[in-house]
Amino acid sequence: MLASTLGELKSYRHRSIKDEMRENLMRKLREGAPVFPGILGYDDSVVPQIVNAVLSRHNMILLGLRGQAKSRILRGLVDFLDESIPVIAGCEIHDNPFAPICRSCRDLVSLMGDKTPIQWRGRDERYVEKLATPDVTIADMIGDIDPIKAAKGGHAIGSEMSIHYGLLPRANRGIFAINELPDLAGKIQVGLFNIMQEGDVQIKGYPIRLPLDVVLVFSANPEDYTARGKIVTPLKDRIGSEIKTHYPANLDLAVTITAQEAWTARGNPKLKVPAYIQQVVEGIAFKARADQRVDKRSGVSQRLPISCLENVVSNAERRAIVSGDTEIVPRIADVYAAILAITGKIELEYEGELKGAETIARDLIRQSVQMVFRRYFPTTDFKETIEWFEAGGNVKFSDEDSSRTVMAAMEVVPGLMERAATVGGGVAAAEFVLEGLHAIDKVGRTEERGYGAMERKASSDMYRDYTKDMNRYKKPLN
Fold first, then answer.
1. Helices 251-261, 303-323: inter-axial angle, 10-degree rounding
2. What is the pLDDT of residue 332?
3. Spatial distance between the Cα atoms of 172 and 215, rounded to a whole number of angstroms
4. Among 211, 136, 129, 128, residue whose Cα is nearest residue 171
5. Which of 9, 355, 389, 451 could form a disulfide linkage to 395, CB 3.0–4.6 angstroms apart?
6. Are residues 150 and 182 in the same domain?
7. Do 276 and 436 form a contact (C-beta atoms < 8 A)?
């Protein structure tokens, strides 16, 4: 049974928050337990750096572009805390019963001794997170003088008893996380490093001693140092470890992350998402991160493929409901139907803005299809299928058509279903093959005619364009 008074607590071994995290992390490492369950792709890069920071008892900052799991990592630090710790009952800053720092708790322990009431605080309650915005004040972060509190208690305005504590003191004996640190005003950052280093602060001109026991962790986009703000040098100097996050290193890892995060398990046993569809969706983010028309400073969040895959599955669900299909299998057409999940998550450079977000998104899908198609068919011969289209063959369908309708249209294409069988077969695989041939410029596609032969200029048109170009450079005769 947990102690309820200070006298019953004499056997409790008090540690600082940083020592507590260090010891619990060491225990995890000895047991071989995962340090950050659910965080994938960081085992050989980010996680060892965080482990070193915690073992060094450092405050730390995670630097990375959006959608790199920075906030999730910060929240995962609570797993390094004890399940619960004792605090003085009713204390706003959750004081340590053995070494209280606020005036009211010191007076209470002096008055009641071993009968001082104790409460227990869980690990989740010991994590405080704040999104930094330019309008955050010292009062929000550190605290302010409360005249009403002073009047009711009969205290002087400059007394510790008149303070209304801010978020940082209320995180005492826990973890205080600040997201997007550069957005925090410089004077607020100064207040933070004063608390970190000296343990004191001035509130409305009154010096207050607050030797808080707290771990400070931050996140920031490295580009924001100059784009929206910066971290003041004295604060940066007091952050012990700077850890850089990154996007998934390869397509297969990224697919695993998206499969873990996306809501695709809809409780329907007839729903099946082919691997090549997952890879095409993931490839969109990879292509966007390398595209010169997409803003690199903003980054392309891992939320893009997550949201896109959810929309792809939803479009396939909708089609199955409307058309009466018994199975739900997303197709390439569903990826194009999910364009709005892409356009809202990419920031474009000037060239991209000129072309428009939807045009860029369609081009990224085509590039991704090309990449995945070449993975599955690096050397496959599609001569029979391509010649059929060049001879005038045509296949047209929409993402609304049932699988039965699309299959009937595709079965007439020579060699198509045989090639589709190598990636699982069925309508989705056949459409993937067609779209892949279109992506490598072997088959044409238009909204009006569907899949057909590649459009080529007639020889007379080519001659006319050639003579027009040549005439441009002819010198006038004398």
1. 60
2. 95
3. 9
4. 128
5. 451
6. yes
7. no
Write the pLDDT tens digit of every residue in 61-95. 999 998 999 999 999 999 999 999 999 999 989 99
For residue 268, give every residue at least 6 positions away whose Cβ sits within 8 Å of its Cβ, in sequence order, or none. Answer: 317, 328
Render pLDDT for 425-442 as a digit per residue (tens, 0 to 9).
999 999 999 999 999 999
H or E element in which residue 24 lies: helix 17-31
CB within 8 A of 191, min separation 6: which ones? 138, 141, 142, 201
Contact indicator for 304, 281 with CB cutoff of 8 Å: no
Q: Measuring CA to CA, which residue among 292, 305, 299 is closest to residue 360?
A: 292
Domain check: are 204 and 318 in the same one?
no
State pTM to two decimals: 0.85
Locate tokens 């369609």: which residue? 362
DSSP H or E stretch at residue 444: strand 444-446
Q: Which of 159, 162, 203, 14 is nearest to 100 (CA)?
A: 14
Residues 114 and 167 in one domain: yes
Asked, for residue 19, whether it belongs to a domain, the answer is yes
pLDDT tens digits, 204-260? 667 777 788 999 999 998 875 544 568 888 888 889 999 999 999 999 999 999 999
Closest CA to 99 of 116, 78, 83, 82: 116
460 found inside a domain: no
Give CA angle at 260 (259, 266), nearest 5°: 70
Residue range(s) defining the domain that contains residue 47: 7-244
Q: Give residue for tokens 């028309």.
A: 293
Do 37 and 99 belong together in one domain? yes
Which phi and psi angles does 379 have, rounded to 5°? Answer: -130, 10
**Residue 474 domain flag:** no
